[in-house]
Amino acid sequence: MTHPAPVKKTLSPEGMKQFHDWVDEYPNKRSMLMMVLRLVEEEFGCIDDDAMAIAADLCGVNVAHVQGMVTFYTHFKRPAHGKHRFMVCATLMCALDGKTDEALAQIQAKLGLKPGQATADGLFSCEKVECLADCDQPPVIQKDSEHFCSMRGPVLDAYIDKLLAAENKASADYLNAPAVTMDLRVSVLPQHYNFEGEQNVGARRSDDKDPYFAAGEGAADAPRTTVIPPPLKTPLTAPVAGSALNGTGRGSNGSANPTGGHHG
Amino acid sequence: MAETTPPATEAPAPKPVVPFSPVLLKYIHEPNSHTLEHFLARGGYETARKHVGETDPASLIAIVKDSGLRGRGGAGFPTGMKWGFLAKGTGKPAYLAVNGDESEPGTFKDRHILEKDPHQLIEGVILTCWAIQSNHAFIYLRGEFILGYQRLEAAVKEAKAKGFIGEKSFGKDFPLKITVVRGAGAYICGEETGMLSSIEGGRGYPKIKPPFPAVSGLFKCPTIVNNVETIANVTHIIKNGADWHKQWGTEKSPGYKIFCLAGAVKKPGVYEVPLGITMREFIDVYGGGLIEGRSIKAVIPGGLSAPLLTPEMVDKCTLDYESLASLGSMLGSGGITVLHDGVDMMSAIYNTMRFYHHESCGQCTPCREGTGWLEKLAHKHHAGHAHAGDADLLADVAKNMRGRTICVLADAAAMPMQSYLQHFRGEFDKRVGEAAYVERGRSARDEITPAAKRETVAHGAPGVLDVGMGMDRV
Amino acid sequence: MSEVKTVNMKIDGRDVTVPADWTVIRAAHQNDIEIPHYCYHPDLSIAGNCRICMVSVKGAPRPVVGCATPVAEGMEVTTTAAPEVEARKGVMEFLLINHPLDCPECDQSGECKLQNYSVEHGQDHGRFHEEKVRKSKATMGPHVKYWGSRCILCTRCVRFTDEVSGTGELGVIYRGDRSEIATFPGRVLDNPLSMNTVDICPVGALVSSDFLYQSRVWNLHSNSSVCADCSVGCNTRVDLDAKDQIKRIVPRRNDAVNKEWMCDAGRLSFPYVRTGRLQKPKVGGVDAIWKDARRAALDLISANGGANTVALVSAWNTNEAMASIRELLAAEAPASRVYGYGNPVVADQVFPGFTISGDKNPNRAGLKQVLGLDTEGGSNSLKALASESAPIGTLLLVHNIPDFAITPELKAVLDRSENVVLLDFGSGELLRYGNVAVALPTLTSFEKTGTFVNKDGIAQAFEPVMEPVTYGQPETDIVSALTRDARAHTTGVRA
């Protein structure tokens, strides 16, 4: 309530215009939060504390509430995620027959990343996510706004190579440098609010091992990401890879692809 | 000659089979199926134009009710009946909330409608809003649907530009807004009230029911929540009539549904089929049968939360709500996954439990703590160092989670666990690597009544009641 | 007032009649039937997430939560049958599986709902042998610390900051069993009502930094009192240790005055009881016995029938003290004048569910009622007295205000006074003023009986919570003794 952290960022005029265009579509400002968070995510590349404060201000809610939302919904991009955020589906249908593991192994081979890690320069990160609703073509991977099915083998290798080239990096750069564990916890409080005798700087520490990341790698001991990645500007209106999905490569009984077995 | 009535035990004569070809997925293979031109060329928006502002809304509800359409999101509740429950005369606006948060693992049907035929959904939304007299529909899409959001948002803009929605829908005195809201990676936002909490701008915490959304939902106003597939059906049913819909399917599960086939089959994918066909036909004919050299170990029939079907049960199963219920499972969202004989069931159940643990919203105690406990125990079995007695403990934990929570995610986690224990108990036992924990002798204390316990405490510890045990203060 | 619609229902076989808009849990509590609860609080919105308040309703297939079930005509509720007992046992087990075994060091021990309900409704053995989820510890704010691992996510604290204080500092972060309570970076829980979250936390997750590790609650004994820090007059419970040291002050429920809330300032104000006290009567700056001090005081007050006496009575005195002053002056100094003063009145701090009064005096209303005096303005306030310039022979200053800084107005009056008879419990600035002829030590509101009238006109009587720590006496008694002395004197009996 008092001494709020000084907000360094403001929303661009285009962003404010989008916000004002949206206002009439909603009965109240609070209900705009999900989309406003997407707006600041797109504008700043990820949702950090400043973005949360801006969203809270625009929608007239307390910033603690916004922080609760951003940490509840796992798809929002946070500063700890890499500029290129790989999300690999690890739910049962993709995990069957080791397909997920295959894809993860390829990512590790190319970028030195285990799930839950980001590269030290903040350009790439890898994480396991839950079902991405394309279970007939495992493994399914999303990289930011791009969605891929049957993403393994040469296709996956080629894609990673393309990203590396775009960043002027090589696979070898990452295989020798150790990756960092992504710290997706909320920011720490100012130091003077520590418990007396607290060993660790910053009052907010979490010791539990999130089973979601690779087993045995507790968030407590690994080095932290220190680089805030540069914003990745892929506005939602840009064409998305995979839009030629209509009718290719998957089973379906739409009209162009008749299967047998109809009644009568 | 006196007519003999057939004996009561004989089954009624089967309905004559009517040829079926896909309705909802009819055009998804055509490259421009998502465009307005394509939709208009096939008679799109004609049904909406005909009825909005013209037809008595109650009669539309009656058609949908008569058709027997059931919710396609998983619960299978009769749609027309749900619409009839909408509270009237409250003085508050009514809302339609369309559930496009397709997060149930094994389900991938709504994606195709959203990406490849979004106008079909929009027309269904318009007709539904007219029927329930709502002026504002929210379509909630999971955050991971990027193309779906782009296509749907573009389609909404096109419909608005044409005047199909807006201040005067089809030029009639019926204002209609459609707001597309994006989720961001929470399975619990597929639960109807979790979705409503998310649309309202908060964490996706489900709400306590009663009151049900039809009475008090979005922004405490009467709200109808329906799945994307359900709404997409509305146009076809209103256009073709209830009897048309009832040509297919069974008496209690009329019509057709999109099923999603995944796992160890030759042709996984989405298939729109009449309800009532056998599971065998679906897997063998549509799915092309099992991949080379594999046989069925189990089938998950309705999304990850549905109890398993063993091969024997698969042979008895037809794809309708009643058949699956009678087999102790559920049709659910229609996500059918075939597990082959090489699948390690301990791995599968661990993966399942990890999913629910990760997705539990954490609001209420049994689910928040129970999903974690289930995962930890399942992990021990997966890793091969479970303690003897852990499988019985799993059964008890799953039982304690059911029926005691705000929403059914706890049940969705407990049901697969109970199902695996029932059908694959041997695999659990094989993974026992440690002896049982030594149970402290259970005292007779468990049989002491609460009143007697209070007495024991009162007499046992001097001074405890002096400062108040906090009982006097809430 | 319109008729409240009521319903008749049965709880555990008993017929009860309750308002129709109540929930089952409130109906039960009102009829002295205990239903265990964590997240339910009568002054906060319903959350329904702890799931322990399970009861069976006839006709429902399984137990329901009592906090979210509205009552209905003819409803039959049981709270002690097997289904709900089993349900509660299950929920208790789930609450304890990730809970740390902190009882040996947790402040809440002894007044912890988890402990209590575990005994009453839980099982006596644990079956969880896995690794527990561990969460952060944080200092939420200047007065509140948070142990995340102990938190059961009832969200009472979050609802409090949203609904009662309206400040919204707290939120739930993360998801599932990793959920914690947190503030936003750079913000802390520092609203003036923050320590109420410590009261309402049913476990030891939120603890008061002030009370941290100070005492075990079973070594404390409690007595009821009324807070004197402002004119709300929150009802309090004062917890003291075996040596009569005040360890903490917590609010008591009074729906007409403070519900169950209290501000932080009132809770933390008690150190003045033990520090800076005037121990013994003083005459001319030298310790004296009561008899001599009273003699000196009476002589000064009643000189010339009180023609040169001015009584200045603060709004921190009890109604009884004011009545005895009135009696004394009428009898012994009928020509004296009486004025009133107190802490300055500032703006109220209004929160959605509570108001901290800006009137930092407990008994301005009593001052008005009993002596007809104002403190802020008016012809018989300190301001009016300060604007005069005539010298005062004897100033009878009945003070009793803790932590008081001498205002310019009071200084002006003191400077004009030849002699001051001071009734106060503190040994601060006032005492060292050169012209204090007689200082009579009084007692704090913790050590005496009395009545304060709060800002809404509610008279609240209080009893002492502890033995006096000085040789002081309640001012009521001192002034009555002066009256008695005077009478004795005139009847010729030398005291």
Based on the model shown, name its key terms.
A: 264 residues, alpha+beta, 6-stranded mixed β-sheet, 7 strands, C: alpha+beta, 7-stranded mixed β-sheet, 13 helices, 24 strands
Q: Give me the Rg of chain B, rounded.
A: 26 Å
* SS element count, helices of chain C: 13
What is the residue-averaged pLDDT of chain B?
Answer: 91
What is the assembly state of the chains in this entry? heterotrimer
Major sheet details of chain B: 4 strands, parallel
How are the SSEs ordered, and which strands pair?
The complex is a heterotrimer of chains A (264), B (474) and C (495).
Chain A: H1 13-23, H2 33-44, H3 49-59, H4 63-72, E1 84-89, H5 92-95, H6 99-111, E2 117-118, E3 124-129, E4 141-143, E5 146-148, H7 153-166, H8 171-176, E6 180-181, E7 251-252
Parallel strand pairs in A: 1-3
Antiparallel strand pairs in A: 1-4, 2-3, 2-6, 4-5
Chain B: H1 36-41, H2 46-51, H3 57-67, H4 79-84, E1 95-100, H5 110-116, H6 118-132, E2 136-141, H7 146-161, E3 177-182, H8 192-199, E4 223-227, H9 228-240, H10 242-246, E5 256-263, E6 269-274, H11 279-286, E7 296-300, H12 311-316, H13 321-326, E8 335-340, H14 345-359, H15 365-383, E9 386-387, H16 390-401, H17 409-423, H18 425-430, E10 432-434, H19 450-460
Parallel strand pairs in B: 1-2, 1-4, 2-3, 5-8, 9-10
Antiparallel strand pairs in B: 5-6, 7-8
Helix pairs in contact in B: 3-6, 5-6, 5-7, 6-9, 14-15, 14-17, 15-16, 15-17, 16-17
Chain C: E1 6-11, E2 14-19, H1 24-30, E3 54-57, E4 64-65, E5 76-78, H2 82-97, H3 113-121, E6 137-139, E7 144-147, H4 156-164, E8 171-173, E9 180-182, H5 196-200, E10 206-208, E11 221-226, E12 235-240, E13 246-251, H6 264-267, E14 282-283, E15 286-287, H7 290-302, E16 309-314, H8 319-332, E17 337-341, E18 349-351, E19 354-356, H9 364-371, H10 382-387, E20 392-398, H11 408-416, E21 417-424, H12 429-432, E22 436-441, E23 450-453, E24 459-462, H13 475-490
Parallel strand pairs in C: 1-5, 16-17, 16-20, 20-21, 21-22
Antiparallel strand pairs in C: 1-2, 3-4, 3-5, 6-7, 7-10, 8-9, 11-12, 12-13, 14-15, 14-22, 18-19, 23-24
Helix pairs in contact in C: 2-3, 7-13, 8-9, 8-13
